[in-house]
Structures are given as structure tokens and as C-alpha cells.
Amino acid sequence: MAASAPQCAGSGVSNAKLGVWLFLASEVMLFATLFTTYLVLRLGSASWPRGWETLNVPLAMMNTFVLITSSVTMVLAYAKAVERDLAGFRKFMGITILLGFAFLAVKSVEYGTKFHHHHYPSTNIFFAIYFTMTGLHGLHVIGGIIVNSALYYLSGKEWDHPLFVGRVEGAGLYWHFVDIVWIFLFPALYLL
Amino acid sequence: MVTHDAAHDQHAQAPSGWLRAYVFSVDHKVIGLQYLMTSMLFLLAGFGLMLLMRWQLAFPGQPIPIIGKLLSPSLAPNGVMTGEFYNALGAMHGTIMVFLGIVPLAVGAFGNYVLPLQIGAPDMAFPRLNMMSYWLYLPGGLLMLSSFILPGGAAQSGWTSYPPLSIINPGQTVWLLAMVIIITSSLLGAINFLVTTLNMRARGMSLWRMPVFVWAQLVTSVLLLLAFPPLEAAAVLQFMDRVAGTSFYIPSDLVVLGLRHRASGGGQPLLWQHLFWFLAHPEVYVLVLPPMGIVAEIMAANTRKPLHGYKTIVLGMISVGVMSFVVWAHHMFISGMSPILSNFFLVTTMIISVPSVAILTCLIYSLRGGSIRFTTPMLFALAFLPMFGIGGLTGLPLGLTATDIYLHDTYYVIGHFHYVVVTGSIIGLMAGVYHWFPKWFGRKMDDRLGRIHFWGTLLSMNGVFFPMFIMGMAGVSRRLWDPTAQAHNLTTQHLNVVSTASAYLLLLFQAPFIYNFFHSIFKGQKSEENPWQATTLEWACPSPPPHGNFEKPPCVYREPYDYSPRGCERDYIPQNVEAA
Ligand code: HEM
Ligand SMILES: [Cu+2]
Question: Are B404 and B398 in contact (CB under 8 A)?
Fold first, then answer.
């Protein structure tokens, strides 16, 4: 009850990092909802096409490697930021951004051939969920590219800002999350 | 000490320039007041829509006086509203009240202004994000409201937007777009509140020393953070159904007006209901917990004794929050569900009522032995207890499958949840306006006008909603454009007149409030730092607080409600005072 010596209060995690983790928690709920939808629709359907019969597995496989590699380069970029090596940071961040674009390029080739074969979201429930989930994931990739490019650009001016490394770490967490979502999407849509 | 990054680097000096100071401000107090004004206007708008509907319900087929002439003939030929327009008004009433009225008022306004002060923080953790939340909320809300004049009109499928109707009806696309914007705004806000509460507390403000209001906002933010994304995803799917021709919610071989629907089919309408209620049940706690927190603060300050069972209240709020994720399908007992599932949701619903009752009991018990000050905020707080109680208890029959099968979709349901959100939430929020007004503007609101507002509001609210229980039990359906179209409704039609008359009275009794509010901002009686002799930290800084809030960061030495401590000449010791 009575007075006691005040201690500092706080979670011990920096604001930015805590904010990113909470944001990712909400993102998990978003994609969990979509995966649940996928399951419910699939279990409720009389027939469901095998992913590999209608989708291009080799292309998607390649995209999986592209994303995983970009996660590795993201970690390296963060490591360079911690080591205060600006040139190294730029190199790996640059590669991460380019790999993001590569993923999108492959994805648009895939979409293009689908449209060419008259497979649209309205075609059937399988393509509906395929386009919606990969589309939303694609938007997340674009978001990640924007954040990463902003950090690349800002690294000139704000390299010595006390929060810069924390921001790179936050962007990294997000980028890994986008990667993980794809790692679930790939088997769910293409392989099972 | 954790780095208070954003707050510090942006808050070293006060903003200069009118635009930065009042419009695109990053100060949590300005943003709080922006939310306050905007959400109260939306509440008034949502109320106005309902007043039009109430006329049609009481006097079906008779032209609406005055306003009927102003409405376009496509909405109300000869001043009598069409069924479609009635549906649009109803859907927009529900949506506006819930998502643009109460939540932004309870969280955006009260949370934003009061929470950082109560934990002794200079601002929110992410001030710029805070500004962005408001600047997503306002355009999202305006987009929602403007759907009345856009081609296709406003959404007509209820605030619940059940498919397949919502996929077929016009107007729904704008509703979905606006919802996604509003949800994004809420999500950003929730992240900000959580980080602020976890990281920005003053020295000595341990979790168990946080005021109940802060706990309420904390639990609310968790609910917003985890329950809103599923609705966002569900809204995206519905959007795809409308715009890209997918069939997530359209079953195979759907026939509309005798024609086979063009979509490929294979989807599941019930899926929407699950996703919607997975949000919308936690949402009712978002509507209720902050007002409960407000009422607790006011009761402690006006009974001059510590809250009875502070920890029980907090643990009650946390368990309500957790439980609220596993009860959603009690809204769907008659939608089609296996008995095993409906029994599960029946049981969880009964369990979740336990902590709610515990909280209310603690609050009622807090009155015992207090030397009660009957201030205007206290009157509202006192009224909250029985009124919210009625709302809660009338919910139990809706959680039991056997009774719900009869009561579902009748006016009984409308009565039940309006007792919760109107005589509960709104009464609690009004209590908060009177309580914190001196902090916001450095002046008090007038007590005599406050009392007129209080008694008039309380009586007319009961006049609006009590008849609905009787009508519902007599079998009157909700969402009914013309109640007299069904013979069994005729016996209770006079109650619709009572309800409508009370609704207009309710509008009338808001006049003293609106006058009092604006008059007191400029001419009210000057108030010092701590006009209620309260203990929590928001009263330890000037009224209104300057930029950065506290002159020097406060230190916290004790529990939040140290009222009438033994052996002390004052009857309260503020949290930031070391020795008695
Ligand atoms: C204070 C004045 C209010 C009055 C007179 C009022 C009256 C009504 C009535 C009569 C209905 C039923 C309409 C129908 O079934 O056709 C209704 C529906 C509804 N109200 Fe209110 N209400 C008020 C405030 C509120 C508030 C503050 C909230 C929310 C927090 C709210 C949320 C709703 C919702 C969600 C519905 C269901 C809409 C739907 O069926 O889609 N109302 N209201
Ligand atoms: Cu519920």
C-alpha cells in the first residue's frame, strides 16, 4: 500500500521493435483468416483441383528460393548495419530489394499465363482463393520493397541516427514474415 | 530506461504554425479532441438517421414532416421513405454508431487524451502514427457517409452485411472500402496504445498501479489488434466477390429473382457470418470496456474510497477479453450449426458472463460506506450500473439456444444491445465528458444544465428502449420497414409510438448538453489542476496540460485510488506523492 521506491517501468523492448511485433501479430491474424478460409472452402467442395495440375510449380519453386535468399541478404544487411559498415549494408540491402522485384516479376509472368489461358478469379473457387491469397501476399512484398528502399535511401542521411539500426531490424522482421507466409502459401496452393 | 524514441525527438519543442498545432498535430491531446468532436458528430448523424426510421416505425406510410419534403423522390416519394431507403438508413445507423461513433469516442478520444496522462507519459509512443490514425478515420468515415449520395446509394444489408444479399445489393462496395480504411486506422491506434502503455509508463507506475481506465484501454487494444484483421480479410473477400466476380460467399446454383446468379458458385455464405462475428463479438467489449473504466475512475473519486476489488475488476476485464474470442457463434444459433457446436458456444457464453457480473458487483460494492458526492459525472456513473445491468442480464436468454430460437431477430435483441451500448456505453462516455472536461479546457461544465441533461437523457433512453423488450417478446421482427404489415404486430404498435416520441425527446434533451459543452469551453467556471481532488496522474498536471504534459516526469509511489487513507488530514493522496 504505502510508498515504495519507484523503479522504472517498461517492457525492456524498444518502442519500434514492440510496435513491429504487434503489427505482425495482427498480420498473423489476417493471414490465418485467409488460410482458414482456404481450408473451409476446400473441405466444403466436392472436388478441388490439384495445385500442380493447374499451376506452374517450377516457377513457384524458383520464387521460393528467391524469397529465402532475400531473407538471408536481409539478415546480412542488418548485420552490416550493426557493424556500422555502410557500404556492406547498401550492398546487401540493394540485393534484397532486387530479389523482391525478381519475385514480383516471376509472379507477373505466372499471372500472365493464367490470364492467357482464361483463368481468372471468377473462373472457380480454386482460382478465386489462389489469386486473392497470392495477390495479398504480393501487396505485402510491394510494401516490403517500399520500406527497404526507403531505408536504403535514408542510409545516406540518417546512418548515424540512434534509431536507424532498430528500423532496419524492424524492416527485417517484416520481411521475414512475408517470406514465411509464402512458405505456407506455396505448399497449400501448389503442392497439396 | 527504455528509449522513448519518437516521443522525444519530435516533442522537444511545441509545434509552430496553426496547421501543425490544430489540424495535423502530433500531440495526443489535440488528436484526442479531434476524435472527440468528430465522433460526437458521427453519433449525432447516426442518431439522425435513426430518427427518420423511427418516424416510419411509429407512423408507417405517413409522410415524414418537414424533412420528407427535402429528401429526393427516389428515396422518399411524397415524403414516405421506401423500403430500400429504410434498409440503407438501418445499415448505416448500425455501422456509423459502432465504428464511427462509439469506438472512436471511447478509444480515439478518451484513450488518446487520458491514457498518456494517467501513466505519466509525455505523449504516445508514436505521435506521427497517432496523427495518421485520425487522418484515416476521418476520410474513411466521410466516405462511408457520402455513400448516400454516390451512385448505387448506401449499403442496404445491415451492419452485419450477410451474403449473398450483400453481394447482390447496390452500395456495398463503398461500405467495404470505407470499412477497410476505418479498420486500418483502428489497428494503427491499437498498436500505438499497446506500446505506449507497455513502454511509456512513469517511474514507479507498475502494471498493478495502473488505473482501471488504463487497463480497460489495454484490453480493448488487444481486442482491436487481434479481432479486426479477420474482418479485414473477410471484407477483402467480399470485395473480391463484388468486384472481381469471385464466389467466396456465393453458393452454387444461387437463384436471384428467378434467374440463376452469374457467379461460378462453390462458396459458403456462412463463412462470412463466422468471420464477421469473430470480430463483432469482441467488438461489443470494445464498446463496453472503456466506458466501464471511465465509470470506475469516477466512482473512486466520488465515493472517496478505494475501489472495491481493484484486482478483481482488472482480472475480470482480462478474462472477458480472452473469453470474447470463443463465444462468437452465439449470434448464429439459428444460422445452422451442429448441436455440439451450439452447446459449446452456449457454455462459453454463460461462462463469459461471470467476469462481467464480477466487475459490476465490485463497482456496486464500491458504493458501500462511501461518502458519495453526487456530481454530474457521478450521476451518470451511478446510472450506468443498473442500466448496463439490464443490458447484460437480458443478454442471457439470447445465449441460451432454446430461448434464442424464439427471440432471435426480434426487437428484443435490439432492446438488449441498445441497453448495453446506449444506456451503458453512451451514459458511461457522457460521464467521462463531464469528468474530464475541466482537464481538457480548464473550465467546468455547468452542474444545473448537467442535471437536466442527465435526468432527461436517462428517462427518454428508457422510453426508447424498454418498449422494445415487450414488442420483441410479442414477436415483432427487427429490420421491419412497416410493422403494421403483420397482424400480430398490431397489438404492440402503440409501443412504437412511445418509443419514437421518446427518441425525439432524447434529441431535445441533448440541447442542454451541446449548449453547456460549447458555452463552458469559453465561459465555464475556471477550474484548477485537480478539481475533483482525485488521485490519478492526469490531475497532477495543469489544466489543460501544456505540450509534453508534465513539467518534470512524475514518479509514482502508490496504488491508484488512495482515498481516505488513515491518519492523514487530506482525504486523498495522489499517486505521485511520496509521503502522507
Ligand atoms: C440513441 C439512439 C438510438 C436509437 C433511437 C436507436 C434505435 C435503433 C433501432 C430502432 C434499431 C432497429 C432498426 C431495425 O431493425 O429496423 C437499431 C438498430 C441498430 N442500432 Fe441503434 N439506436 C440508437 C443508438 C445506437 C448506438 C449508440 C449504437 C451502437 C453502438 C447502435 C447500434 C445499432 C445497430 C448495430 C443496429 C442494427 C442495425 C442493423 O440491423 O443492421 N444504435 N437502432
Ligand atoms: Cu456476442
Answer: yes
Integer Cα distance of B91 and B105 in angstroms: 20
Q: Which residues pair with B572 in a beta bridge?
A: B563
pTM for this entry: 0.94
Select from B492, B489, B500, B429 the least CA-distant residue to B460. B500
- Reported as type and span, the H/E element at residue B487 is none
Cβ burial, residue A12 (10 Å; 0-12/13-18/19+):
exposed
pLDDT at B385: 97
pLDDT number for residue B15: 61
Give the pLDDT band of residue B522 (cuts 50, 70, 90): very high
Q: How far is residue A101's CA from residue A186's CA, in Å, rounded to a whole number? A: 18
Chain A residue numbers touching B200 (CB-CB < 8 A): 10, 15
**Burial class (CB within 10 angstroms; exposed 0-12, middle 13-18, buried 19+) of A5:** exposed
In A, minimum Cα distance to B225 occurs at A26
**What average pLDDT does chain B have?**
94
> Does B246 contact A128 at a Cβ distance shorter than 8 Å?
yes
List CB contacts (< 8 A) between A14 and chain B: 2-3, 5, 199
- Per-residue b or e along B263-283, where b marks 16 or more CB atoms closer than 10 Å to that residue's CB: bbebbbbbbbbbbbbbbbbbb
Asked if residues B565 and B29 have their Cβ atoms less than 8 Å apart, the reply is: no
CA-CA distance, B87 to B98, in Å (whole number)? 17
**How do residues B121-177 score in pLDDT, each as one tens digit?**
999 999 999 999 999 999 999 999 999 999 888 999 999 999 999 999 989 999 999
Amino acid letter for position B405: I
Summarize pLDDT for A57-113 with one digit per residue, the tens: 999 999 999 999 999 999 999 999 999 999 999 999 999 999 999 999 999 999 999
Q: Is B222 in CB contact (< 8 Å) with chain A?
A: no
CA angle A160, A161, A165 (to 5 degrees): 85
Cα(B41)–Cα(B514) distance, rounded to whole angstroms? 11
- Taking each helix axis as running N to C, give the angle between helix B310-323 and helix B212-243, from 0 to 180 degrees, rounded to the nearest 10: 10
Identify how many contiguous H helices and E strands chain B contains and give both numbers. 22, 2
